[in-house]
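pinging the channel bc i need a second pair of eyes. not urgent but kinda urgent?? the chain im working w is below, pasted from the shared doc
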Amino acid sequence: MDVKPSFTVLLVEDEPADIHLTRMAFNESRLLVDVHDVGDGVEALAFLQNEGSYQKAPRPDLILLDLNMPRMDGRTFLKHFKALEKLRQIPVIVLTTSDAENDIYASYDLGASGFIVKPVDIVQFIKSIQALEDYWLCLVKRPAH
């Protein structure tokens, strides 16, 4: 019997180690979370609009976005994403190594719902993802699809 995930998360991240850690954190969760990952903003937009190889991609409940990626970075992705009327209600949480004030301000100005600096410590990273999960997937009321 297949168990359907309770929540779908799109992870927009180009660093394999961070993808692995994020998946590991969600796997330790008490919730069923289906994590999909793409390597940059171009792929993320294709995923969200069911284009190319993503024609059957599910609509995510939450997007985790790195800022510094090849082809299309997180800032450019946010600009394009917020123009998509049918999707822009999906919360986008910036999850990045940058703690620069200009990145924080720019992310919120472009419509990010939150900004988290990736902890370098693995235990703290997992705790951050689990706290994010508790807040965004359990506590917050999101619009229906």
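so Strands lie at 7-12, 33-38, 62-65, 92-96, 114-117. and The longest strand covers residues 7-12. — does that match what u expected or am i reading it wrong
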